Amino acid sequence: NNHNSGLPLPLEGIRVLDASHIVAGPFCSLILADMGAEVIKIERPSTGELNRSRGDIMGDIIRKGPVDDERGISARFLGINRNKKSVTMDLRNPTCKAAFETMVSSSDVLVYNWGPGALDRLGLG
User: Fold this and answer.
1) End-to-end CA, the chain
2) Which residues contact 37 (CB under 8 A, 6 or more apart)?
3) DSSP secondary structure of 77-121
4) What is the pLDDT of residues 104-113, one digit of tens each?
């Protein structure tokens, strides 16, 4: 384990913007985070990423963060989103769009899996 030996992880210093959902995209960015990348997850206001409420709910874990959910959070969400930072943004809002564009320009990687043309339809293609 290189991290315990004091050696840097291979992706330290790399910033990843994760605008993905469900499993495939978050799993991809999880691997990057585990390898030392700074991963910033973009979530929808109010509901957060869809996986927060799907699957087995950890009722005794209430996360105070971008999306407060008094019901708890799904075990799947917790498992594939470790080592990530998280913010909420409504990418239909012009102020949030501008912030997203700034974040993209200061990131090395953008991960998203919303289907062909999704970012184009938001004016972010």
Assistant:
1) 39
2) 11, 12, 14, 15, 16, 29, 109
3) HHHHSTTEEEEE--TTSHHHHHHHHHHHHT-SEEE--S-TTHHHH
4) 999 999 999 9
- Please state the pTM of the whole predicted model: 0.82
Q: Which two tokens stand for residue 47?
A: 């509901």
Looking only at the bridges linking them, the beta strands covering 73-74 and 109-111 are: unpaired
Q: Report CA 81 to chain centroid distance, whole Å.
A: 7
Ramachandran class of 43: left when φ > 0, alpha when ψ lies in -120 to 50, beta otherwise? beta
The answer for residues whose C-beta is within 8 angstroms of residue 31's C-beta and 6 or more apart is none
Specify whether the CB–CB gap between 99 and 12 falls below 8 A: no
Q: Where are the beta strands (DSSP E) in 55-124?
A: 57-58, 73-74, 84-88, 109-111
